[in-house]
Predict the structure of Glutamine--fructose-6-phosphate aminotransferase [isomerizing].
Amino acid sequence: EKGGYDYFMLKEIAEQPKAVADTLLGRIDPAGSLTLDEVRIPAGALREVEKVVVVACGTAFHAGLIAKYAIEHWTRIPCEVELASEFRYRDPILDARTLVIAISQSGETMDTLMALRHAREQGAKVLAVCNTNGSTIPRESDAVLYTHAGPEVAVASTKAFLTQLVACYLVALYLGQVRGTKWGDEIRAVVRDLADISGAVERVLETMEPVRELARSLADKNTVLFLGRHVGYPVALEGALKLKELAYMHAEGFAAGELKHGPIALIEEDVPVVVVVPSPRGRSVLHDKIVSNIQEIRARGARTIVIAEEGDETVVPYADHLIRIPATPTLLQPLVATVPLQVFACELATARGNEVDQPRNLAKSVTVE
Ligand code: M6R
């Protein structure tokens, strides 16, 4: 069943271009508008939404963090993202005009289920983003947008994450479309760009050999740090989570702007630091700031592993290792930037002799609180 791969994780990483394409399938009409009628929340109700709250755990939570950037930018609706396990214990403010998005691959995560039950008790509408047909979370939600990743077997989530991102972008763009924000033209352009993402992920996968080699060379390290900004920040968190669960290494993700507020004290000779660089187009201020972060940490001895867009030459002098990703619109970059981090973690786990598909102490779906 592993289709010739040594591990399900490798197979699932390789399936990502198809998973992304399948999740878009039938949801964009030939004129470039989104058709999410399957969601069955009337457009009128979506126009009345005053707040969006995303609840999820682990990797799905990271998808939620990225969704916030997309939802707030394209819809101007305030969006909060909260760990499902924390949500109901703080007496969150919810009412009929709150749209709660519960993201879950399995649809059986108890923390997420309890959060959505709490939200519905307070009168909020719940939209599930889920990969498992007929599972508990979509059954208990008001509406569901399924991700079409196909079954994910490896404990470490990969293709489900990319499709969760696609689903969240679709929700954000759809909300923007039905509410008619000032970003109408941008929304139409991004919908077109989404169609190219599957091919971009494919291209990333074709260039992963140097990443595997790099991972093997770091097998005896104790710590790897990850830095990002804007949507690259949750990508850094996801890269660190993958490394913890698969390689059993100490790994932490930081918002690069926080470096000087503490984490820079961790930088010492030869510590590997993975930096996700935003596109030099788009929010170029952030790009320039992160390039100076790379210079700062390198001056303190860090081994810099830089993930940057093709054609971005400014990073070249400061990158000990350079991983290229295709150019995408800023908000869509996580779809390509996450892939090398998955490959990196998988290869490090292998090099350290760990069980890739079944990391110690972990279960594929966490059905207890
Ligand atoms: O099935 P879910 O998406 O609700 O699972 C949530 C987390 O348990 C899950 O993403 C976990 O963090 C993964 N093992 C990460 O790779």
In short: The chain is about 45% helix and 15% strand.
